[in-house]
Amino acid sequence: MSLSLNQWTTRRWTLAEAVDGCARHGLEAIGLWREKVAEHGLAAGAKLVREAGLRVSSLCRGGFLTAGALSAGEGRAALDDNRRAVDEAAELGAACLVMVVGGLPGVKPGEPLPDAFSRDVAGARERVAEALGVLAPYAGERGVRLALEPLHPIYCPDRAVLSTLGQALDLALAHPEEQVGVVVDTFHVWWDPALYDQIARAGSRIASYQVCDYLHPLPADVLLGRGMMGDGVIGFPPITRAVAAAGYTGDVEVEIFNADLWAADPDEVVATMKARYDSVVMA
Amino acid sequence: MSLSLNQWTTRRWTLAEAVDGCARHGLEAIGLWREKVAEHGLAAGAKLVREAGLRVSSLCRGGFLTAGALSAGEGRAALDDNRRAVDEAAELGAACLVMVVGGLPGVKPGEPLPDAFSRDVAGARERVAEALGVLAPYAGERGVRLALEPLHPIYCPDRAVLSTLGQALDLALAHPEEQVGVVVDTFHVWWDPALYDQIARAGSRIASYQVCDYLHPLPADVLLGRGMMGDGVIGFPPITRAVAAAGYTGDVEVEIFNADLWAADPDEVVATMKARYDSVVMA
Q: Which of B71, B98, B143, B235 is the most exposed place for a label (fewest CB within 10 A)?
């Protein structure tokens, strides 16, 4: 396994600055975000990363497929956007396209959900499965692997009705292995009593291993509860060992959403990340 | 099934006021908290509730068994306190003693966990199983049923390493049914992709069905993210039907921790609770 910088960890950096930072710190891989790539331009960004000799450990992200029927309106627009994300992942040579599948339809902060359709988490999950039936072969034709990311249940209302690794695997196994894999992100899965069984079950379906810590308490904006490894509650070594034992030999991406780290000097953040990777994640 | 007021929903009320409120609103059952009972006095409280003709749908709570070895110090003190909770549940004639098993040992708000022992969630879970081996027969001898409550994974750091209904059942099934059951609390389990399978598997192990809604976003103090049914994101009817189909015929307890509701007139809260029970939970 080898350390990769997910570029959202150093969010202030442009794509060019992040590529330069990886080179300066001796990193061999980078996790890209579509927004950052688009700012630079897709073709130029792909060329930049390629010429720097960096592997693209993932592209973030596709998904948000739960709003409604896939045949029209928001649902159809979401499918179209995911096809574009697949195309971008292909051009960038990304190891996978991370899929954050979407939450309950119609959820709005501070408001009760309006109807039974919105409250139907099982129905939202069915739409994800249906969308994968369209997107998996599309990705396969372009040599792109979709990576289904189970998110911590706290994000079930608004970001992902995919909540456990086991559930992600159930979805992935309906498709060829080279088309659909899963993400193991420590923040999202550390609490899961089935974690080790499901990592073993996942085996070569593990498309990405992402690490960051889980802060306690979470900040008011729970999206920013991701911390530098060692700053929270997660015991990394047994998870890392299990992922390795499952056969994963890919990059280990550090993806941290954290207001303090975003405000800090990105070079210092990367230096700390490298040190903590050795002392905390791989210990 | 019949509606029960968990007295923490009307937290401003003393035990006597809550008993009086139940009578005034035509409720047949109440969920009690040890603190509130202690304020009134255990024997007098038991008499008060009995003479009011109320069933005690649960006593909250035992648990917090993960701090360390059970043979000494905090661990032994926790076992002793749980035995006292069992004794109280017996005297009150409670249908069950709710068990919130405890989180990671040594967790402190805003501080990284200090060592591998603290970060060992699997180890904390083993201590819960070990403690149940002591407490289940103790409860059985006194006619008390322990009700293992899986809590939403957001509470895994500080309140309960018991995170899914399936995990609670795995623990419960090691003991006689009359000694150990499980709680199905909508707030904690609504997101679980295995929910319906596990409710069916639970069958007569369901010791308590608790309802409240899940607010989105959660407030900064996530403990207070419980809302009146209909104010959040949960679709209650399929969960209620599944619990009924599993054979549960006990009381349905409404347990809400919510700063706005605690500030409101308790009589209005109970009136709203009754209306929402009919229109939202049993719809």
A: B71
Tokens at B80, concatenated: 């002793």
| Whether B251 contacts B1, CB under 8 Å | yes
Residues of B in contact with A260 (CB under 8 A): none
Q: What tokens does A9 get? A: 């960890």
| ipTM of model over 0.95 | yes
CA A272 to chain centroid: 21
Tell me which chain A residues have a C-beta less than 8 angstroms from the C-beta of B214.
Answer: 157
Picking from B221, B219, B166, the residue whose alpha carbon sits closest to that of residue B188 is: B166
Quickly state the pLDDT bin for B42 (edges 50, 70, 90).
very high
β pairing state of B180-185 and B206-211: parallel
Q: Which residues of B touch A191 (CB under 8 A)?
A: 121, 153, 156, 161, 163
Residue type, B146: L
**Cβ–Cβ < 8 Å for A152, A115:** no
Instruction: Scan for tokens 């690794």, then name that residue.
Output: A165
CB proximity A93 to B under 8 Å: no
Percent of chain A at pLDDT above 70? 100
Q: Does residue B229 contact residue B280 with C-beta atoms inside 8 Å?
A: yes
Domain count, chain A: 1
Q: Could you please report the per-residue DSSP string of B37-99?
A: HHHH-HHHHHHHHHHTT-EEEEEEEEE---SS-TTSHHHHHHHHHHHHHHHHHHHHT-S-EEE
Verify whether the Cβ–Cβ distance B191 to A109 is below 8 Å: no
Q: How much is the pLDDT for B62?
A: 98
The 10s digit of each residue's pLDDT in B159-179 is 999 999 999 999 999 999 999
Residue-wise pLDDT for A118-170, tens only, equals 999 999 999 999 999 999 999 999 999 999 999 999 999 999 999 999 999 99
SS (H, E, C) B213-276: EECCCCCCCHHHCEECCCCCCCCHHHHHHHHHHCCCCCEEEECCCCHHHHHCCHHHHHHHHHHH
Token readout for A48 is 């930049």
**CATH number assigned to the domain comprising residue A99:** 3.20.20.150
What span, in angstroms and rounded, lies between the C-alpha atoms of A225 and A82? 27
Please give the DSSP secondary-structure letter assigned to residue A280.
I
Structural domain range at position A50: 2-281
* Whole-angstrom distance, CA of residue A140 vs CA of residue A169: 18
Q: Point out which residues pair with A214 in neighbouring strands.
A: A226
